[in-house]
Every structure is written in C-alpha cells, then in structure tokens.
Amino acid sequence: MSLLVMKFGGTSVANIDRIRNAALRVGEEVARGHDVIVIVSAMAGKTNELAGMVEEISPLHDAREYDAVVSSGETVTAGLMALILQEMDIPARSWQGWQVPLLTSSAHSAARISEIPTENINAKFSEGMKVAVVAGFQGLSPEGRITTIGRGGSDTTAVAFAAAFNAERCDIHTDVDGIYTTDPRICEKARKLDKIAFEEMLELASLGAKVLQTRSVELAMRYNVRLRVLSSFETAGKTAGTLVCAEEEIMESSIVNGIAHSRDEAKLTLVSVADRPGIAATIFGALSDAGVTVDMIVQNISEEGRTDLTFSCPTSELARARNALDGIRADGRLNFHDLITDTDVAKISAVGIGMRSQSGVAAQMFRTLSNEGINIKVISTSEIKISVLIEKKYMELAVQALHDSFELDSAG
Amino acid sequence: MSLLVMKFGGTSVANIDRIRNAALRVGEEVARGHDVIVIVSAMAGKTNELAGMVEEISPLHDAREYDAVVSSGETVTAGLMALILQEMDIPARSWQGWQVPLLTSSAHSAARISEIPTENINAKFSEGMKVAVVAGFQGLSPEGRITTIGRGGSDTTAVAFAAAFNAERCDIHTDVDGIYTTDPRICEKARKLDKIAFEEMLELASLGAKVLQTRSVELAMRYNVRLRVLSSFETAGKTAGTLVCAEEEIMESSIVNGIAHSRDEAKLTLVSVADRPGIAATIFGALSDAGVTVDMIVQNISEEGRTDLTFSCPTSELARARNALDGIRADGRLNFHDLITDTDVAKISAVGIGMRSQSGVAAQMFRTLSNEGINIKVISTSEIKISVLIEKKYMELAVQALHDSFELDSAG
Asked: Which of A318-322, A401-405, B233-237 has the lowest mean pLDDT?
C-alpha cells in the first residue's frame, strides 16, 4: 500500500466549500488505492486573527501561550476535513500535533521538528483508516506544551511527514498551478515547468517566487521527498502541477530554468572603507546582530588602502542597517566617508542547473540586458544562479528579454 | 496556601476588554494570598460558530471530531487569559484539558469526568505559579481523544476542579449578580439571596432559573463544594453574590426561598386509559425511548377500570411525545380514547427547605392563586417544592402574588 502526503494551504481550506473541494482531491487518491496523510493549514485569515488578539494583549508575549492560541486554527480545519471525508464514506480521523505526536524543540513559535513517530498513525491505517488528517504547523515540546514551527510551517510539516512515513510523493496544493519559468503577471510567455530540481527551487524560493517555503524545500532535498506543487482550484485531473525532485530525475537539464525577480531590494554602498583584515567581519557581524538579512555583497578593488563596499538587503531592513552602520562608526570600530543608499533597484536572477556544465551564460545575460539599454549596478553569482541589480523601472523589460533570450517559452 | 477556583462564562470573556476585567478579579484574589485555578469558557458566540460549521457539514457527525473542533474555543480564551495575567506580572499559564489531564469517559460531547489528577498543576504552583488558567468544557478520553462534557460544561469543570483540589470556594462569574427570590424582570420586588442551599438551587436550576447548570450543582452538593454565583460586570467588591452551600451553613431557613417559573411547558392528557398494572411503564418507557423529558405526572382516580393520565414536558418535545404515544397506540400496546394537548400553560413553583418542617405551605399557595382568580390545572409536590400548571397569561401575576404572600421581599 503506497502512501501519499497531501497538503492544503489556507486559501484551499478558506471555507467549507473549499474544504469539500480539497476532500474530493483526497478522495481521488484514495480511489487510486493510496493511504493518505492530509496536512491542513488554518482557514485563510484565521491565524492572523488569533495572532492579532495576542499582539493586542502584549507585543512581548509568552511564546508558549501564543503557540497554544494560534495553533487552534489548524485544529479546527483538521476536524472539519475529517468530518467531510467521513461524509464521503472515507474512513478518516483528525490528529492534533500532540496526538501524533510531532515532537519538536522548545523554541516556541519557531520550533524545529525533532521526530515524528509513525506508530500511532500506522496503527490506525492497519485498522482500516484511509486518511489521517493532521493539523499542520503544530508540535509538542519536550515539556509537554504546544509549539508551532513558524509561519508557513504547514509546508514543512507536510514534507516532514512525507519523510517520516516514506511517502511516495508530497503534494502541496496551493493557489497557483505550478512553478513557472518566470512570473506570468510580468511575462505572458511564462511557461509552467513539469519538473524542477530541488537546488533550482531553493534559489527561486529564496528569490521571491513565494510558492514554497524555503525551509520545506531544504527538508525535501535532504530526505529526497518528491514534492509536487499544484492548484487545488483546477478541475480534477486537468493539471499535473510541477514536480520538485532530485536532479537525477530530470533527463536533460536546461541551462536556465527560471528568471526570478524582486522589487524589495535596497542597495547600500559604504564609500571609502579602510581595507584591512577583519573589517568585513565587523560590518556584517553588526548587521547580523541587528537582524538585517544581507543578500548580495560586492567589494571593489582597493586603492591606497581604502575600498568601496556594496551590499543589498530587503527594503524593510534598510533603516535598521543604517542604524547598525552608524553605530559602529560612532563607537570607532568602522571608518567610512559616506553611506549611499538606493531603493530604486530591482534584482533579476537567472537560475538553472545546466549552468554548471555550460559556460557563457553570464555573458549572454549581460549582452541581453545591454542590448535593451539596461545598466547593471551589481552582479553576484553562485554555481547555478546569476543575479544582477538594475534600475527598478527596467524590471519587467529585463525579465521579458531574458525569458526570450534563454528560450524559456519552449520546453526542453 | 488556600486555593480558589474562579469560573468565567462566555459573556464574561466575550472580548479582550472583558477578559482583562475578569483578570482584574483574579488579581484581587491573588493579592489576598490565594492560589487560583481559573476556568474559562469560549468567547461568547464562538462555540455556536464552530458547532454551526460542523452541523453544516453533517447533522450526523462523528462526535469525536465535533469535540476536537468545538473545544478549540476554550483553548483560545485560556491562552489569552494567561497572557493578560502575565502582563499584570502574575505568574500564570494556560492548561488544555489533555494537559491537566482532565480524564473523562469516551461518551463524546457528553463525557463524564472520571478523575482530575492534581500532580501537574500542583507541581507548577509549588514552583511559584499563582494562577492556572484551564480551558473549560474539555477532557481527554481513555483513547487519547479530546472529549467535551456537554453544553454549559464549564460550570461543571469548575466544580470538579474545586472538588479535586479541595478549594476553599468555587466562584462562578456570570452575567447576573446572584440568585434571586424570583425573576427580577417579572417581579420588581425580587431580592438577591445571600445564601441558598444546594437542594433549593437544584430545584430552582431545573425549574428554569438558568444561572447554574443543574449538573454542576449536583456535583457541588456531592463533594460539598461551596459555590458562589456573582457578576463579572459589577464593580469590584460591590457585591458578594450568592453563596450556594450546604443546608447546615444557613442559620434559619425560610419556608419558601424562591418562586420559579417556566413558559416552556406542554400539558398532555391521555383520556380514558385502561388502568392496569404496567400501563404507566409502557407509556413512560416509550416517552423515554423517544427522548421526551417528562416533568410532572398526575393520575386521576380510576372509574370502571379506566383513568385519565396527565403529564407535562418541554414544548419542543411535544411532537415527539405525540408520535411516541400514537406509536404504542397503533401497535396495540396502549388503548386510550383521546389525547388532549395544551401549550397555553406555565409552571410556577415555590421552593424552600423550610417546607420540610412547616405545614400549610401548599394551602397558602393555592389560596393566594385562588384570591387572584387563577385556576390550577395540575399540582405536583416534592419534599421542598410545590409546582402548579396555570394558564400562561397569569404567569407574571402568579409570581408577583406568591412573592408577596411568602414575604420574599424581606430577608429572613
């Protein structure tokens, strides 16, 4: 008997009709002979409503009580889903995190999953249960308190169950029908990918293609859990979504598989910093302490012992970054002539596993942008990704031009 | 260190401001040196909202899933209350039913409390916790599933905790400021009682004075838990509410302590039933099987082997009662000439422990009603109660006249 994990996000269970629709998808897989573990989120809006009440009481709340309160949203959806499945004559029951139990660390509101014993649920499968509906996002701490594993944690819950139960596949039902070569709202030629490698998905997820939680993709890669992203709103059978899997499952990797973009970037340049050992550690240590997520870092050549240092971070963290840098300048740990900031930038990235074995990708990217008259402000590369910062107004044009240049509208 | 149990119902925790107000009451008791176990209901309307979703999915739902869903309302209030207490610098934490654990039978949605081990909560009290906030209404079945103990079960939860922890008192905070000699909306001379005996409260509760769950009073009487009913909306200290306690605590019992009334009564008369052994068992067995709650039963004298039999039940159960009686008539188990029903009746009851040692109470009651020109349709008496059915339009008049006649407006 093969087992599937199916996860439904908040918009897919936003009301009873949508839960019914999701249950029909589960029923199809049961009819195909699968046992199914369903992971559900809270009904759309519920978690925010509950978190809002806690925030109203206390911005500096006890995270253990926060977790007990906000996790109740998933509890409700799990019970309702089990009831709907039972109405469809499918033997089903709900499981709260502590009943499984999904064991976690004590880091409330951001707990790490430590173990998912399979005995309790498997015992029910062998008694004839076909579907275990599990409340996502919830766990149990070593102290016996309810934990939650962070916002968006239901994706991670689903992958963890797929790994623990050695599931054939983990289907993530969401409000998009798969992973695209780029954002269809920007580029009408965007094409849905049939398959994408974990590594590519990780680069795309962290670049702002907000379909899957980065953490869930990391976990899937570590345990080689085949993830399928698909829409819960499409007519049954119409779409197979996109399979996120190991590189080996993809016959012929494209050189570039996706063009990602992000508007939420700020560029900071420290002008004329003393270029001596330890100075980068001072700067980025202070930024890290201030909770600034630094993305790209570029250091120009040094002249007369001084250099310019440029980095990027999310726009929302710009003020914090500036404070941190002014702080270490004020206490004498850092000396620089000027701090220039620029929020009129966008980040464009080309991602593809094929880059590893193919040269000339960067050159093609720069040539394409140059042909459109787009100036490149910062460049950063990794093994399977090339990112550039450009002027914000050229973002759409850049995405479309690169999508054409790398022929992403045609499969293979 | 003495321990109090304080229970707050749905209207007393309907929003964050009201939970704050309730928390202030808890804080006052902590300041007096008490450890406190707080039992909370779901925020007003929540349980109905959750139950409504379950009903929408399936009228014949799995009670285990129903319990998992509806109990989440209490979980949320418990967490919010704990957070507010912490904001007031009072060491507090929330407990869900399964965490205590409050052990129950497997009769989901109407579970009986079997045991409340005190170890877990007492361990936290000895570590310095001052308030344990417990989600009412919830329990844990022997199978490890969430149970609920029936609507209004938070009163019962509170009394059970008071019994298990040997609490000094159990304060039930509600939207009225105590137990009255009669309904103040009907009789402006109604007076709040300082004390009332368990037995009297039981008669009043089951007669429609809906302040306390009958079951919680029964439990309080069995374990001699001193119950105090008081309003959570009054200014602190303004009212001491009403103490429900053992008869021995009440120095001088009044002959009559309260006049109760109920509009929700239907009178049924079976005309000319064969008066032979076993016939009453047939009739009331069939009514019981049909889920009809029979209240008063009166049988007239027999003539020529036939008799008239009158009983009352809640109006909402009249149709079911009629069906049940027609059923046993159709299958030949019962023979009667006619079934006369009457929903134009109200029940008036005088309750008082002093009746036990005092004769003439019934005579005084009948004389009072007669003086007002009110005809009595059915009479039923118990050791501490006399009930009559009268025409509905005379209900207010009867309550006022009896309240005057037994001088309930003056204490003692």
From this structure: B233-237
Q: Give helix B63-70 / helix B46-57 axis angle, nearest 10°.
A: 150
Omega of the bond leading into A117 within 30 degrees of 0 (cis): no
What parts of chain B have a pLDDT lower than 50?
A: none
Average pLDDT, chain A: 91
Q: Which H, E and C letters describe A316-355, residue by residue?
A: HHHHHHHHHHHHHHHCCCCCCCEEEEEEEEEEEEEECHHH
Q: Smallest Cα–Cα separation from B39: which of B133, B153, B122, B124?
A: B133
Report the pLDDT value the prediction gives residue B2, as an integer from 0 to 100.
92
| Sequential DSSP letters for B105-172 | -S-TTSPPEEE---HHHHHHHHTT--EEEEETTEEE-TTS-EEE--TTHHHHHHHHHHHHTT-SEEEE
**pLDDT at site B30:** 97
Q: How far apart are the first and last CA of chain A?
A: 34
Cβ-based neighbour number of residue A61 at 10 Å:
22
In angstroms, rounded to a whole number, what is the distance separating the alpha carbons of residues B95 and B74?
10
Question: Please, what is the angle between helix A16-31 and helix B46-57, to 10°?
Answer: 40
A96 contacts in chain B (CB < 8 Å)? 68, 146
d(C-alpha B380, C-alpha B365), whole Å: 12
Cβ B258 vs Cβ B408: under 8 Å: yes
User: Using CA atoms, how far apart are residues B41 and B13, in angstroms rounded to an integer?
Assistant: 7
In terms of Cβ atoms closer than 10 Å to its own Cβ (0-12, 13-18, 19+), residue A345 is buried
Q: What is the number of alpha carbons within 13 Å of residue A153 lying toward its C-beta?
A: 25
Can you name the residues that pair with B338 across neighbouring β-strands?
B271
Reference B178, options B233, B217, B230, B239; nearest CA is B230
In the predicted model, is pLDDT for residue A300 greater than 60? yes
CB contact under 8 A, A86 and B58: yes
Side-chain half-sphere exposure of A271, counting CA atoms within 13 A: 5
C-alpha span between A40 and A75 (Å, rounded): 9
Which one-letter DSSP state was computed for residue A15?
Answer: S
Q: Do B146 and A84 touch (CB under 8 A)?
A: no
**Is ipTM > 0.95 here?**
no
- Phi and psi (nearest 5°) for B26? -65, -45
Task: Give the N- to C-terminal CA distance of chain B in Å, as an integer.
Answer: 34
* DSSP E strand boundaries for A194-257: 195-197, 227-231, 242-245
Pick the closest to residue A5 from A231, A156, A127 (CA basis).
A156
Is the pLDDT score of A347 beyond 60?
yes
> What is the torsional sign of CA B181, B183, B189, B191?
positive
Picking from B149, B174, B195, the residue whose alpha carbon sits closest to that of residue B25 is: B174
For testing contact with chain A, the best of B66, B76, B127 (most A CBs within 10 A): B76
Element (H, E) at B69: helix B63-70
CB-based contact B16 A87, cutoff 8 Å: no
* Per-state percent for chain A, helix, strand, coil, to nearest 5: 40, 25, 35
Q: What average pLDDT does range A76-101 have in this prediction?
A: 98
**Pairing status of strand B297-299 against strand B306-313:** antiparallel
Distance CA A101, CA A116 (A): 6
Across the interface, do B96 and A146 touch by the CB < 8 Å criterion?
Answer: yes
Using a CB–CB cut-off of 8 Å, the residues of B that contact A are 16, 50, 53-54, 56-58, 61-62, 64-66, 68-69, 72, 75-76, 78-80, 82-84, 86-87, 93-94, 96, 98-99, 144-146
Nearest of B98, B277, B393 to residue A140 by alpha carbon: B98
Contact A61, A52 (CB under 8 A): no
Question: Rounded to whole angstroms, how far apart are CA atoms A378 and A373?
Answer: 16
Q: How confident is the model at residue A148, as a pLDDT?
A: 96
